[in-house]
């Protein structure tokens, strides 16, 4: 836990805009160290791609990764709030959101909006 708190301090030192934003309570005695260790190991397995892709929405990819893992862990019940990225991407390809508006009545984690933005970028920003 202390190592994670120290890492958060280092990130804040190198990024002044994050000063006071990042949590630094991972060394608290009530935090289960085994679960924290598993979480750190899990984050370490997330593939971030080549150098060019590493700078692109890493937090978004980490967020989607954890959503997917949570949905998997919850089994059938997890699918109630999470639509896999590949399904959302297919939907976006079908609706071709060029007119600047997307309606997602079941917004959830905003995957439809993220994929719509990516679709527009891939098609020349129209």
TrEMBL record:
Keyword Methyltransferase annotated: yes
| Any one Gene Ontology BP term | DNA restriction-modification system
Query: Which terms are listed as keywords in the entry?
Result: Methyltransferase, Restriction system, S-adenosyl-L-methionine, Transferase
Q: What class of enzyme is it?
A: transferase
As its record notes, the protein acts as a catalyst of:
a 2'-deoxyadenosine in DNA + S-adenosyl-L-methionine = an N(6)-methyl-2'-deoxyadenosine in DNA + S-adenosyl-L-homocysteine + H(+)
Task: State if Oxidoreductase is listed as a keyword.
Answer: no
What's a Pfam family in this record?
A: N6_Mtase
Q: Which InterPro entries does the UniProt record give?
A: DNA_methylase_A-5, SAM-dependent_MTases_sf, T1MK-like_N_sf, Type-I_RE_MTase_Subunit
Where does the DNA methylase adenine-specific domain lie?
55-125
What does the record give as EC number?
Answer: 2.1.1.72
One GO MF term on file is:
DNA binding
Name it: site-specific DNA-methyltransferase (adenine-specific)
Q: What's the source species for this entry?
A: mine drainage metagenome
